[in-house]
Every structure is written in C-alpha cells, then in structure tokens.
TrEMBL record:
Organism: Actinoplanes subglobosus
InterPro entries, A to Z: ARM-like, ARM-type_fold, PBS_lyase_HEAT
TM segment ranges: none
Pfam families attached to this UniProt entry: HEAT_2 (PF13646)
Entry protein name: HEAT repeat domain-containing protein
Top-level lineage group: Bacteria
C-alpha cells in the first residue's frame, strides 16, 4: 500500500483515503506521524490526528516518543491532541505516561484523563501524585482533571489537605476549582478566613484587570450600597480576592447560566468612591443591546436618586468594546456605548456606518456643581439648543473625545480601577456579596488569589 499516495488524497479531502490509512493500522502510524510533525505538509493536521486516534493503541508508543522529542510547540500541540483522544478500550494505558520523564507526555496523559470526566475517578491517586510535579503545566493539568471528575474527587482531596506534604497547596487549589468555598472543610474555611483578615489589614490597592462592567458611587456607606443593589450574604475579602472573583466569573465559561451574575465585588471607598463590580441579574438575562442599554440607564438613574451621582462603566479585554453611563439626581445626563457594527454586504460599499449603530448619546442636563462632581451649571442664552450641541459641550468641558475609553472617563470623573495604587485613600473593607441569582445556591467554583 502506497501511504504517500493516500496522504496526497487525504490532503485533497478524500475521506476514502482516511479510511484506508485507518484500516492499515500499525503499518501506517510512522508515515502518518512523520507527516503530522512536518509543519510544512499540505495535509491538514487535524485529519492526521483523526487517523492516529482511530488506529488507537498502535499509535500510543510512537506518539509518546514524538511528544517527548517535539522540536516546536506546534508539533507538541498536534501530537498532544492526537494522544489525548486515542480510541483505546482500556484508558489505564495512560498510567505509564503519567510517570514519563517528559513533562509534555505527563501533561498530555493528564489531559487524556481530564477528557474522561467522571470516568477518571479510578485514576485519582495517579492524578494526586502529579500535585508534586516540578512542571507547573503538569500540576495544572492534574487540577483540571480533578475538576472534570467533579464532586467525587472532594473526599480524596480533603484527605490530602489533612496529611503532611507538598501536595496540600495544589489540593486546596483543586478543591476551590471544583466547588469554591463549599468544597473546603471547616478547618480550611477557618484558615482561609484568618488569612484574609491578615492580608486585608493595610492592603495596598493594585490595578484591576478590567473586563466587564462596574458601577461607581461617591459614598462610603457600604450598607446603603448593599441595600440598593439587593445584595446579601456579604463576606469580607481582600481587594485582590474580590477582583479575582469578578474576573473568574466573567472568564470561566463552565460556570453556567448564572456564572457572571451570582455575586458582586464591592470595594471599600477608594478616594471617596465605592466601586461595584459585576453584572446584575436584571441585565445578565436580557437579550438585545437596546434592552440592556435601557436597563442600565434606568438603574443608573435610580442609584443617582439615592446617592446624588452614579456612574456605570464597561470595558472588554478581548475587543474594543467600551461604554459608560453618567447620572445625577435621578436623570441620565450622558450615555455612550460603542458597538461593533456589521461589515457591509457589498465590499464596494464605502458609506459611513449609521451613527445610531455605534454610539448612543443622551441629553446633557446641566447640574449645579458640588464637591466631588465636575458638572457645573450651564447657562445658555435663548432657546433651540439641540441635544447634540449640549452633549458636545459636555465633552469639550471635560476634554472627553467622542470615542474616549471608559477608563479615561473614570479617571476624569471618578476612580479608574485600572490604575489603582498606593496613593489611593482606602476607607472600609472589600466584600463579596450575593445577588438574587446566587442566594441560597452553591458557592461559585474557582481558585482565587488572596
């Protein structure tokens, strides 16, 4: 059988060539694997991994050798993808790879067990053995595999926590990753609470990684903030932990429907402003930009009725989205939201995008200046001044460009959490509190920095 010809046909997307290579079994492995490791080959790498996976056990040892000797990260990635999904009847074959001298092989074997999910429970002792691995990637893979096993892994991990040894730290990470606070036993919960109290004392603010939305209110009355946002179950945390929880909730795609709206991080007063990070349930479960925008506006207006001023900001770490909403005394005075517009169907269409697609402005309603607020009384002689004119006046007054980023507006008008530092005056404590979506529900999974 001419394997080179079959590979040429496979490059041309001939499914019969794939079937022929799989039927050839062990005889085809070396040629297919050599092609997989050749980054210049015209054969799609994923077609080659599929062949090796279907051949099964005969691919195991050659893939181990190729992984250990991979000359580039790309070759290692390809071989690891094939290795993790081999069609073998007994997954115990991966045990030997967990003890291989190459960290790439050990990590790939842990990845293979991770894909088994709950069926990997018999391999828990092997995975826990990797908690002491010198390679951080291998330790992380072992934690992810334990997470995939789920609640069934908790008793074994708790046992590790009560025994001596270097595995204890990674076991704590695995427990938090599986079930958050609820996965910890009483001893660990007490230890974490004490550590939070020690680290919170005199904690210096540090910049927050911004991805999502947050509110800014000029108050140090945390009880009033909790009441207005409908938050319960408040628990003191460090500022570092609160920010880590917010980012975990927005980037952990395994948390499910209420992952981003179960809890909110409320800062201490920072230069007189309390920041509230998170997504309210009233916003999280809406569909459509207009409905979300209108709900945010209404909430900002409501907050400003109680606190005099309320700001809402939004930013993304993955694209150019940014937004803000400013309200005073129950009225939205300015709102900006940039939305990625769809490209024109006709590539020759050079027309400008519809302004309503990319920005939303509300009337600028002048207010009398007061401490901590930059808005001043605006006197306009005569009538007939357009909303656009008033909005542009606002931007000129505060040097806000038409497409300013939310962090710039926060710097000018309140507090920019992305630039927090030791010069910031801190009053009170940071807390995590539950929304209506999180109340009476299991704690949010995630290993958070304290």
């Amino acid at each position: 059988m001419n394997f080179d010809v079959l590979l040429e046909r496979l490059a041309a997307d001939d499914s019969t060539a794939e079937q022929a290579l799989v039927a050839a079994g062990a005889a085809a492995v070396d040629t297919v694997l050599q092609t997989l490791c050749d980054e210049s080959s015209p054969v799609p790498w994923y077609r080659l991994t599929t062949v090796l996976q279907q051949i099964g056990e005969a691919s195991f040892a050659p893939l181990v050798t190729a992984l250990a000797a991979a000359p580039t990260a790309e070759v290692a990635r390809r071989c690891g993808a094939a290795f993790a999904d081999l069609d073998v009847p007994d997954k115990a074959i991966y045990r030997s790879a967990l003890r291989h001298h190459s960290p790439a092989v050990r990590a790939a074997a842990a990845n293979a067990l991770q894909r088994l999910k709950a069926r990997a429970e018999p391999f828990l002792p092997d995975l826990i053995g990797l908690f002491e691995d010198p390679a951080s990637d291998v330790r992380q893979r072992a934690v992810w595999a334990c997470e995939a096993i789920g609640a069934a892994a908790i008793p074994a991990l708790r046992a590790v926590r009560r025994a001596p040894g270097r595995r204890r730290r990674t076991a704590l990470t695995a427990l938090a990753t599986i079930g958050g606070w609820d996965a910890l036993d009483a001893t660990d919960q007490h230890a974490v609470t004490r550590l939070i109290e020690v680290k919170a004392a005199g904690e210096t603010p540090v910049p927050v990684h911004l991805c999502g939305s947050w509110y800014a209110i000029p108050t140090s009355d945390q009880s009033a903030v909790l009441d207005t946002f409908g938050l319960t179950g408040a628990r003191p945390v460090t500022m570092r932990l609160g920010a880590a929880a917010w980012n975990n909730d927005h980037h952990n795609w395994s948390l499910g429907e209420h992952g981003s709206c179960s809890r909110m991080y409320v800062t201490p007063a920072l230069n007189g402003w309390t920041l509230i990070f998170g997504t309210l349930p009233a916003v999280a479960h809406l569909r459509g930009e207009v409905a979300i925008r209108d709900t945010v506006r209404a909430h900002c207006a409501e907050l400003s009725s109680r606190f005099g001023v309320a700001h809402w900001y939004g930013a993304s770490c993955g694209d150019g989205w940014t937004a803000w909403c400013l309200a005073e005394d129950g009225t939205v005075i300015d709102h900006y939201d940039i939305v990625e517009s769809e490209p024109p169907d006709d590539e020759d269409d050079q027309s400008e995008p519809d302004e309503s697609v990319i920005r939303y402005y509300d009337d600028f309603v002048p207010r009398t200046a007061r401490p901590g607020v930059l808005h001043e009384q605006l006197s306009i002689d005569g009538f007939g001044v357009s909303a656009a004119d008033r909005s542009q006046w606002a931007r000129r007054r505060y040097n806000i460009p038409d497409h300013a980023h939310a962090t710039d507006v926060a710097t000018w008008l309140s507090v920019n959490p992305g630039t927090l530092g030791p010069d910031c005056t801190v009053t009170g404590r940071a807390i995590l509190a539950l929304t209506s979506c999180g109340a009476n529900q299991p704690s949010t999974p995630g290993a958070l920095a304290i």
